Amino acid sequence: MTVSTNVEEYLTELQDLCKLFGEYSDITITHTEERNDENYVDRFIYERGEVKKQFAYSYKLSKTLSPLRAKSYRKRMVKNHLYSLLSKELKVNLPWGSLTGVRPTKFARDLVANGEIKDYLIPEILTKDYFVSPSRAKLVDRIIKHQKGIIQNDNMVDLYINIPICPSRCLYCSFISSEMAMVQDKVETYIDCLIKEIQCVKEIIKKKSYIVRNIYMGGGTPSVLTAQQLDRIFSQIHFSVDEITVECGRPDTITAKKLDVLKKHNVTRISINPQTFCESTLKRIGRKQKNVQVLDAYTMALERDFVVNMDVIAGLPGEKLGIFKRTMNTLLELCPHNITVHTLSVKNGALLRNSQEVIDDRDVESMIDYSEKVLTENGYKPYYLYRQKNQLKGLENVGYFRDNYICMFNVESMEETNTIIGVGAGAISKRVFNIEKKIDRQPNVKFIEDYIERIDEMIERKKEFYK
What does the radius of gyration of the chain's CA atoms come to, in whole angstroms? Predict the structure, then answer.
């Protein structure tokens, strides 16, 4: 499916919306926007083979809107109109309607914050005005109600530390992450540079009088580092914070010695990610772990009083609904504090894109619906949500919690309520200005080799960004 428009700023989002309808290479969409006093008119030409149709949609723009909000509103309208056209012609309804963004909950929050809707109308407006399915609209509403503890303070920051190294590359992964065997000789130098950047960040935090609320070490798989290497990094960090999370996603990298180091440095939460409890699937997707390693790692984590998150993925190659149900039921028996249910995303950078594995998405929506049903029945509640490009059936990822074990870093990063200072290769820093309602971003270079070579440049850029 191809799309063109006379308003270039719409093009990317219109293309993203078209992709959600699947591969229709024989469809061409032409969009033009016209203005007549207070009225805007979107004209579309829909062409498919011998079929050519023209559609026109008009709307008014309130004079009270600021230029920024007017621009946002116009973009929303043209996406709504394109969705109406495609949904009608292709007889397809998408779970998230015309919404293409990563953060549906933030979108709903912004509607309320801008005075466009009342908070109790969120499900109704998402369904009526943006074609979101009733179940997804209710999910957004539930998540927002569970997101307690958000503090919007421009002096409050989170620290993100990136370790873009894994023991091996999973078939579905598109992150910029190196296999340990390929960078073994560079790890110590990388840690040297990472500590150098952390020292710079400590100076910035002191100078700006920032308050560090949460720390998150992600990747990659940070637990691929040795206990001594983890100790080196965390010995540089002495902030009094609410939570410290470390992704220990691959159970085969977790040892008692590493967990003891993390506990010594006041880490409160870790991720142990089975992704599935079907070992034939694990082998198929390039994860060498055994289920017994998941159980052993989980036992060691509970013995040390860590809050534990576990990830699973719906739609993995070769899995049907029955296999996914067994994975979910095993998770419920383990009863971790957090469970994150991902929908498989087949991105261009993933090995899965060019593999011989067949992706069958017929069961994936039933998988996601089943996970929500059984998690809710067993006392779990959804607390954050995000979407990725190329997710099967245009679905989503949802994090659930039991009792009061919410990961505030996940909430703040998804809702973009707090400044995040990112260190390490591939880390992205975000400065959130709550009063001005804007966000500035600054990425570090993506690859370990470039990061080592350009560490002094990264530090100078960070100083300039936060001055």
Answer: 23
d(CA 234, CA 229): 9
Amino acid at 332: L
Report if pTM > 0.70: yes
- Structure tokens that stand for 457 in this block: 């440049």
Q: Which two tokens stand for residue 379?
A: 């006392």
Yes or no: say if 215 and 161 are a contact pair by the CB < 8 Å rule.
yes
What is the C-alpha to C-alpha distance for residues 246 and 435, in angstroms, rounded to an integer?
31
Q: Are 180 and 167 in contact (CB under 8 A)?
A: yes
The tokens for 7 are 């308003």
Beta bridge partners of 342: 313
Question: What is the DSSP-derived secondary structure letter of residue 346?
Answer: -
43, exposed or middle or buried, with CB in 10 Å at 0-12, 13-18, 19+?
middle
Contacts of 107 (CB under 8 A, 6+ apart): 99, 101
φ, ψ at 359 (rounded to 5°): -95, 115
Amino acid at 66: S
For residue 226, what are the CA distances in angstroms to 54, 137, 298?
62, 44, 19
Residue 179 · residue 164 · CB < 8 Å: no
DSSP β-bridge partners for residue 218: 162
Per-residue pLDDT of 215-270, as tens digits, reads 999 999 999 999 999 999 999 999 999 999 999 999 999 999 999 999 999 999 99
Which three-class secondary structure state does DSSP give residue 195? helix
d(CA 142, CA 135): 11
Kind and range of the H or E element at 153?
Answer: none
**Integer Cα distance of 117 and 104 in angstroms:** 15
Residues 62, 235: Cα–Cα separation, whole Å:
55
Structure tokens at 42: 């979107």
Rounded CA-CA distance 132/136 in Å is 6
| Domains of the chain (ranges, CATH numbers) | 156-457 (3.80.30.20)
Beta-carbon contacts of 181 under 8 Å, excluding residues fewer than 6 positions away, are none
SS (H, E, C) 272-325: CCCECCCHHHHHHCCCCCCHHHHHHHHHHHHHCCCEEEEEEEECCCCCCHHHHH
In the chain, count H helices and then E strands: 16, 17
**Contact of 143 with 135, CB cutoff 8 Å:** no
Q: Are 256 and 293 in contact (CB under 8 A)?
A: no
- At position 105, the amino acid (one-letter code) is T
CA 318 to chain centre: 24
- How does pLDDT run across 138-167, given as a tens digit for each residue? 999 999 999 988 989 999 999 999 999 999
Name the residue with tokens 């390693």: 293
